[in-house]
C-alpha cells in the first residue's frame, strides 16, 4: 500500500509540532524519519496512523492501486507507539492474545502467529512470565511482536531500536528487511543514524516541524552538504596560516607539517581552490572527505 502525506500541519497549544510536511511511502520500502528531540516525528507518526488529525493538509492511503482512502483500515496497519503500553502484571502471552483479539484475529490464527513470532524473537520459554520480569530490551521485542502479529501491510514504528543492545538492533534490522521483502510499507522514526543509513530506502530529516531534506541517502547528502571537508598533502612543509587565509576556506586543521584538513563552503571547492593551493606549494594529494549522515545531520540541525 501507499501513504501520501501532503502539506500536513499540526498545532498544539503553544507550538507548531508539524509544519507543512509532505512525503510518500510505498510498499517494499523503508522510510526513516530522523530529527532531534521535539522535531515533530511522533506527532507526524500519530497522524499517519489516525490517532490524531492534521489541522490542515491531507493524509491518504492507497490499497492495491485502488482509489485513495482518507481513513486507515485498522487491520492494515501495525503501530509501535513511543509510549509502550503493555500490561506489566500480565504474562507475555496474555498480552499478545489480548492485542490479537483487539486486532480481530481469529483465535487459532492468533495462537499460531504468536507462537511463530515468539520463536522468531527467541522468547518462547519466557511466554508465561509477567511482562515486568522481562528486561527492557525483551519488553521492546514483545512490543514489536504486538505490532506485527496480524501481518499488517503498513508498519509504523516510533523508535523501534530504543532500549535494544547492538545484537538486538541487528536482529530488528533483519526483521525490517524481511518486512520490506514481503512488500510491506515500513515507516519508522529513529535516532540511530548508522543503522538508518544502512537500511532505509528513503530518509526524511525533520527539524522544528519541517522537512529539511528528504530522498535517498545520496539525495539527502546533496541537500545537506553546506560545506566540504578536503584533504591536502603538500610535497614540502607549509604554514597552516597561509591556508586559512585562502578565499572560501573557513577552517584549516594541521594533520602534520605537510598534511591538512581544509573546510570550505560547498561552492568554493574544486579547481579554483586547487589552483590557490598549488600557488602555496607543490600538491601531492588533494581529495574530498566524505561526511557521514551523522555529521551532515549535526551540521544541519545545529546551524
Ligand atoms: N500532546 C502534546 N501536547 C502539546 N505539545 C506536544 C504534544 N505532543 C508533542 N508536543 C510538542 O510538539 C513538538 C514535537 O514533539 P514530537 O514528540 O512530535 O517530537 P519528536 O521528534 O517525536 O521528538 P522525540 O525524538 O523526543 O520523540 C514538541 O515541541 C513537543 O513538546
From TrEMBL:
The superkingdom listed in its UniProt entry is: Bacteria
Listed GO MF terms: ATP binding; ATP hydrolysis activity
Entry annotated with the keyword ATP-binding: yes
PROSITE patterns tied to this protein: ABC_TRANSPORTER_1, ABC_TRANSPORTER_2
Q: Does the keyword Chloroplast apply?
A: no
Which parts of the sequence belong to the ABC transporter domain?
3-233
Q: Name one Pfam family in it.
A: DrrA1-3_C
Keywords, comma-separated and alphabetical: ATP-binding, Nucleotide-binding, Transport
Q: What is this protein called?
A: Na+ ABC transporter ATP-binding protein
Which organism does this sequence originate in? Pseudidiomarina aestuarii
